[in-house]
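Aim 2, interim progress. The first record below pairs a target sequence with its structure tokens.
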Amino acid sequence: MSWSKLFKIVGVLAFISYQTNAQMISKQGLLQFQSNFVEAQQQLDARLADTSSDANVALELNLQKAQLYMLYQRADLLQPLLSQIQQQIFAQKDEAVHSQWHLLNGIQFYLVGKYAQADESLSLSLELLKSNNRHLENAYLENFILMYQAVNRVYLQQYEAALAELTAVYKRAEKNNWSIIQARSLVFMGEVNYALKNYEQALEYYHNAYNTYPENALIYRAETLMFEAQMVNIVGERSVAFTQLEQAMDVFIEQQDDTRLANAYLLKSYFYSKVPDDFQALEWIAKSVKKREQLGNAIEIANAYVHYSSQLGTNGQIPLALEYAKKAADLAEVHEDISGQWDSYGNYADLLNQAGDYQQAFHYMQLSERALLKKARLDITSQTATLNAEFNLSREQLKSEFLDKQGQLLEERNALLNEQLLMEQRQQRHQNWVLMVLSAALVFFLIMCAVIYRLYIKNKLLASRDPLTSLHNRRSVLVLGEQVLHSSDRYQFAVSVLMLDIDSFKAVNDRFGHETGDRVIQYVADICLAAIRKPDYVGRVGGEEFLLVLPHTDEQAALLLAKRLCEQVVNADKKSIEQVKKVTVSIGIATKNIHSEQPYNSDPHKDLNQLIREADAALYIAKEKGRNQVQVYHTDLDLKDHAVNLDASTPNMLRTLPD
């Protein structure tokens, strides 16, 4: 967000009249731009070429060009232009012109994340404007500067002061019918509430701002619609958020607003990551990264790199994710955006942890914690200063009222009261310091606990999950299966075990490569996971072999599930494995059910190993009979002609149940 958001692309730049520089930003002039960025820039360049011999006209056009760059948030173009015209600006004795240069420079600092320098430039601009002794003429511009001073303080963690100043600017704008400043104040109040995680309140501010803008303020309405979509995605319907974002993007494309379009790409990637649709999320964040790299704003590039590396990590591309996460951390280090540093360092630490580089992960997690503590310290300091100011104001009001009522006769008592108040103030300061120290210690302790717990959970998960499919690994599913068998023995319910094997998997690896083979395994794993119930378990126990443990499931129910799995593997969408046109599986079933009338199922002494051996034997028969089928382990000797003897040590036979 920047001062450029206060301009509208309406009017043709070729017809802008020459006017005093300080008056260019006025309630009449804010909507004077019309044409998109490229056309407007070309028009200004053409006029500069025609008037190159007239220094004053050239300076005026360069200032208009600087405002155009502000409109499109092009800090990469604005900074060199301001440096180019600086000497000409300060050669003039007009303090209003100096004020405008400092204003543009302050916004430039704000755009690149140098918030302390931005605050200094904006304060100097306001001071120069006030010394001009034309308060009524400059009222609009003064409030314009105050508004951006306030939003800049959000990034200095001065939330209360920012909100109070924005509220005051909004009231003055409403009184004077300054619709653009009125709407922008609402947008910035929404930004404050977003920073404080008051998402519903932020949504209300953005919605009111959208309705406050003039209808011809297309780019600002589109930008506000994008912010509204961001909040709707959090507290409302995601489909509505997608629609709003698409509408905003259409305007940005038409106006060739690359900066906001890059922001929209990033936001669209975030929306898809919540669907979730990791493929689309990665595609859109890649577009945002490319666009922001072209624009060259380091703080925005760092933000895009954080989201890009996080999505790459989600998609399993850890080496590339680490590369971009490192770039983001390096860029964030040189900027004043504490929240950005916290996000960048924490993201890089998380990816390093996934890659197994625990020493570096710990180092960057420490950096992330320091950034968080610094942010918390600034928040506490800001709150303490606000409380002290309110306390001092209340004290002075009390003192004034007391003196008015008591007069000279109560001077002695007033002195005692002042002494008491001074003592309370010292105590308050002492309590504030104690509170700050305790709060910082508590925050640090909680963060350390959270980090340790997070690492514990991740290590526990890694120990029990197959890294390729995220299913239970062999050890985990066997432990869970034993627990199910123990419960079955105690509560006497049926348990079925399915052994599933991908048919002709070696041929897939030989023909298409191991990467495609891995995607086939993931494809089958996803289908299995989607098909089972919450109390069921599925794990990968071999290269292309899966084990399903199904409590409260008899032979017929297990058979229905197995057939359904076979059909879904054949018929499901194979977009993720486009090269492989046909995938089939074979499944073997074994059941333990003490209530069954069949002796081969009702044996109470069956353990998990025996059930797995039986299911594996059934799977072997399914393979022998042509694959892409289900076989159920059985010991009915009358059905010998429908089965084969497995080996000399396994007298039990197999049969195929009828469809």
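The second target in this work package is listed in the same format:
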Amino acid sequence: MPNTDETQGSAEVTAGADGVVVTDTSDDRAPEASVVSNNRRKVGLVGLIGIVISAMVGGGIYSLPQNMAESASAGGQIIAWAITGVGMWFIANTFRILAAARPELKNGLYTYAYTGFGRFVGFLISYGYWICNCFSLCAYGVLVMSTLNFFFPGTFDGGNNWWSVLGASVITWLMFLLTLRGAKSGAAINVIGTICKIVPVLVFIIAMLTVFELGTFLHGFWGLSSSGVQLSFSFSGVMDQVSGTMLVTLWLFIGIEGAVVVSSNAKSQRDVSRATTLGYLSVLVVYILVSLLPLGVYSYTDIGQMSNPSMATIMRDQFGTWGGVLVNIGVVVSVLAAWLVWMMMISQMPLFGARDGIFPKVFTKTNAKGAPTASLVASAAIVEVLILICHFVSGDAWDTMISITSVMAMPCYLLCCLFLWKISRKSVAGTPDGWPDGIRYSRRYGIATGIIGTVFALYLVYSAGLNYLMIACVVYAVGIPLFFVGRRQAEQPSLGVGAGDRADVAGRHGGWTNLFTHKEFILAIIVLIAGVIGIIYTCHSGVFGA
């Protein structure tokens, strides 16, 4: 039977100014990881804020105007940002409180799920976060290739034609080779990527302020009819617009847990809390400006029909070729830098899971450079398969990939909110599920934050729609055999056994029910059934076509 009180070795990786480093650790209760810099320097408030901002602001910001305008008018977007701002605040607040209440759980998402809900749920979150980021790398491929279409018109249309598939595949395997050779995300890569990411965004905001017209912004504030007539406010109509933007906004805020992930290397947990707040608010303001300012130049319907990255399209149309070139170069360089970082990071996740006995042991293999060979091969292969599948997406490939990524990330954030809710309900200090003494947050505050964060996470699930939820069900169901193999291997005795004992060992460790608790077994069956339903639904949904 899985037992979360059992000591397990673990490891952790993160990308920071000092590089990506893997460190083995152990804990008395759950698998933990410790992120350390090469010289074990502690990260202060400014550094933590930079990590939060860098983790959240990615390639998605360059397509944000079109992604939001595709579903919502100015009024709808403002309401969407208000809901997102409040909801994501409580998600961010969840991480702030958990960092203070359970500082020994250094690897946020995974260890919160593992400690709070058991080994199988911990596996689902670890596996889901791994695959979620494989989809993210596929989305990077679509974005890079559609951006290169600016320089080679007609060659990479949509970012998912066959030339795009070839280009994204080449990049994927080049990143694989670099990571296999033990490449590390040093300060130079992070600095270059961050500069190329931030400078075009700031130039865009300033440029939009110079051409913004209030009259254009207010025209069609609540929407336009098919004939171009302005619509009045309608609650149901506006909420439909808001729901259509939720997957986009969730995609943008993936990474909000950045400061928590590196909390073991922070100077203080108070800095972790403050960095999460300040980083989140800074990024929220930037996102709102990038989303809304173009509506003072174009109608939302015009922006919604632009090719991505729409920020480059707007800059080129308003300020000439230099504007488009600036943004597109920024997109390519920053996304390639992020691609290398994330290839290294996601390849570690199966490695950690294997060391904790919830992934197959093959994922523990590393080469002479310390790179996790099997994990890298698996990660690159999954990204390659997703790139090929992406060619058959009906409609906007970028939108589909980021939507699936967002849906895959939902359980990760939902479980963190539920974990906070769980530990806030108990006031017995010093117990694994109890509320600790001496922290700045009250138990009632923790309960309120956990409940509101959970409600918002469930609203995101509702907004996702069946198409993407069914795809997520399929992906999660496909991963269950990994857990089965990993647990079966972990349950095998480390000492040798005689021939007469082998049958008894097989009997004790060979069955499904011996590898799951009763509740975990029921959950696994539910996930498998949902996966089968998901396959049937997806085949008839039209998301993928020839």
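Confidence is low (pLDDT under 50) at residues 1-40, 494-510. This observation will shape the mutagenesis plan for the next reporting period.
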